[in-house]
């Protein structure tokens, strides 16, 4: 299974301000904190870093969803994928991807996963691609991997974790 678009970076921004960064506390369906996510502007796009623990081993779909609300246990309150350009789902879909479509996260046998990806379809400032719009956005982790083509959600299964992205 190919991991499309993953880019591992070590970027430090000494003078970052609240306008160009954000974070999320990721919780499972029982409301237990299982990880964190951070976003920050870089000269090349938005860097997303996720650290999780207590998830099943294997690949799990990760998406930015269009509503900053994470009501368990199903997290449907987070709405559909963030998709301001009205594309179809999937990093490998010729008619896509959604702005919120991301590569999968790999969770090790220990239940931990670390994830870094540089995104060029979302922004942290103003405008239609900003994840800090009127109703906010959320990071959602699904039970299985994303097939990267099937609209609307890549056959990724249930939503098992969610975190509201805040400045």
Write the layout of secondary structure elements.
Blueprint: E1 21-28, E2 33-42, E3 45-52, E4 58-60, E5 62-65, E6 105-107, E7 113-119, E8 137-142, E9 159-165
Antiparallel strand pairs: 1-2, 1-9, 2-3, 3-7, 4-6, 5-8, 8-9
Question: What can you see in these coordinates?
Answer:
It contains no helices and nine strands. With 167 residues, the protein is mostly beta strands. It has a single domain, classed as Immunoglobulin-like, CATH 2.60.40. It has a seven-stranded antiparallel sheet with strand order 5-8-9-1-2-3-7, with no helix packed on it.
Feature tags:
single chain; 167 residues; mainly beta; Immunoglobulin-like; seven-stranded antiparallel sheet; two-stranded antiparallel sheet; 9 strands; 0% helix; 34% strand; globular; disordered N terminus
CATH-level-2 architecture: Sandwich
* Mean pLDDT, all residues: 90
What's the number of structural domains?
1
Distance between the termini: 34 Å
Give the uncertain stretches in residue-range form: 1-16
Q: Globular, elongated, flat, extended or rod-shaped: what is the shape?
A: globular
Beta-sheet strand percentage? 25-35%
Put simply, the count of helices is: 0
Main β-sheet: number of strands, strand sense, barrel status? 7 strands, antiparallel
In terms of quaternary structure, what is this?
single chain
In CATH, the topology is named Immunoglobulin-like
SSE run:
EEEEEEEEE
The tally of strands reads 9
Structural class assignment: mainly beta
With strands numbered from the N-terminus, the spatial order across the biggest sheet is: 5-8-9-1-2-3-7
What is the CATH class?
A: Mainly Beta
Name given to the CATH homologous superfamily? Superoxide dismutase, copper/zinc binding domain
């Amino acid at each position: 299974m190919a991991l499309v678009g993953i880019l591992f970076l070590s970027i430090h921004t000494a003078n970052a301000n609240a306008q160009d960064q954000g974070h999320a506390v990721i919780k499972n369906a029982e409301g237990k904190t299982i990880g964190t996510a951070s976003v920050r502007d870089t000269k090349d796009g938005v860097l997303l870093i996720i650290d999780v623990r207590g998830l099943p081993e294997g690949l799990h779909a990760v998406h930015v969803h269009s509503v900053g609300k994470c009501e368990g246990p199903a997290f449907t309150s987070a709405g559909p994928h963030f998709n301001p350009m009205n594309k179809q789902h999937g990093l490998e879909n010729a008619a896509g991807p959604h702005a919120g479509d991301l590569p999968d996260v790999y969770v090790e046998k220990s239940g931990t996963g670390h994830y870094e990806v540089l995104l060029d379809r979302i922004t942290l400032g103003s405008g239609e691609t900003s994840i800090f719009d009127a109703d906010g956005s959320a990071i959602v982790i699904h039970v299985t991997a994303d097939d990267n083509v099937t609209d609307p959600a890549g056959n990724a299964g249930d939503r098992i974790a969610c975190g509201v992205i805040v400045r």
